[in-house]
Specification:
51% of the residues lie in helices and 17% in strands. The protein has 484 residues and is α+β, with helices and mostly antiparallel strands. α5 packs parallel to α6.
Length: 484
Amino acid sequence: MAWDIGLTRQNKRPPNSPANSSSKAVGRIAQSLLFRQSRLRLAVGYTGVMGTILILLGLGVYQAIAHAHEVTVDRELKSVSDAFHDAIESAAVNSSQLSQLPPGLFPNLCVSNSACTKPIAETTHHHLQSTYQYDYYIRLLSPTGDLLATGGIRPPGLLITSPIPAWQSLKDENNQIYHQIATSLEDDSQEIWAYLLVGRSLQDFDQYLRVVRVYLLIGFVMSLALVAAASWWLSALAMRPIYRSYQQIQQFTTDAAHELRTPLAAIRATVESVLRLPHLSEPEALETLTVIARQNQRLSAMVSDLLLLSRLDNEQQLADKQPCCLQDLLNDIHEEIAALAIAKAITFTLDIQTPLPLIVQGNEEQLYRLVLNLVNNALTYTFAGDQINLELRRVDQRAIISVVDTGIGIAPEHQINIFDRFYRVDQARSQQAKFQQARSQQTGNSGLGLAIALAITKAHQGTLTVTSQLGIGSTFTVSLPFSS
């Protein structure tokens, strides 16, 4: 009796049942929310980092502009002070000669202590030095600190300070800032008879910096908006491979659970059927053990394949590389498969198109498994009267192995996914192909052959491609670098 016939369907929920559809919908919503939240956090992190960088950059630019402008103002103030200093020394050598200073050179000159600090109305005098007339104030102090004369503008409430230190910053009653420089005036005997204080308003400087701050703020807001948009887009790009990997893992877990559940359900159903029997004859016990052994062999093969895939995924490079002759390897595979191909009435040929040995550095056991999986795949989907050709040729510095069959072929939309683990293309296959695939599963095929072949190819720095047409056949091509 065949205890496992038809028993693999029990305890399986229909794929389109309401419970399945509802759980899938809830899972998709939760998954979408999870990745949207992750994308949002990633975008906010990008924006925060770039915003901090922009702030630091803006502060640095602002400080550089302010410092450069301040240095320019100080140089200008020093130049004007030197000009006034030279003009006074050439016209007067003591305080009694201050009245002889030309009023055109020193506008609003006041040589009296009375009313010299009161604000004055703007005049209409013009001179070569008119650029300085209403921006600067001039004060002459005696060595004892008494005010001798003033000229230029007269800021309201601006205190008269000591000439030491030479550079000072002052404020008037309107909190307007002035920068002041002090120099000494000497007579013919090199004695100081007065101090010259020249200062200018920094109002235009403050206005300039205010405009700079506004422009920097506008630029920061616009840049931050662009950074936020770019971060949202970049976070989508960053999450895309993660999302794809998550879907692949989820699909792999589902498929693996399904593949493992099938033999387990068969074993359980077989055991439960035997336990219900009042008496168990020797032939029945033998058949029961045969079914269990076959399903156990299928489980063992699947677990071994999964372990091999995991090891290949984790290996950065092969640890035990050895020279492998591809001609010898393909001859061994041809001898092994020839009897099976004859039994299925399939023509299986070997075509080695290069007389020179093609030596590949790699793991011979894995390379054997690679080609054998491709040949077994061709045998699974070819039938009596079809042909399979195993070819080997050299193209430049690469060895090309091709497995060409005249089987049922693969639809174009499925060719990109056939190397995925547990991928099913039953919708594109005929009923005969489905039967052939079911038969291969019963003989222990784990459904991971092409995935393992691709992993082994990548571990040997090679490529594996497929070209196929429905009803015509398929060609799997392996390209490997070889050592001459």
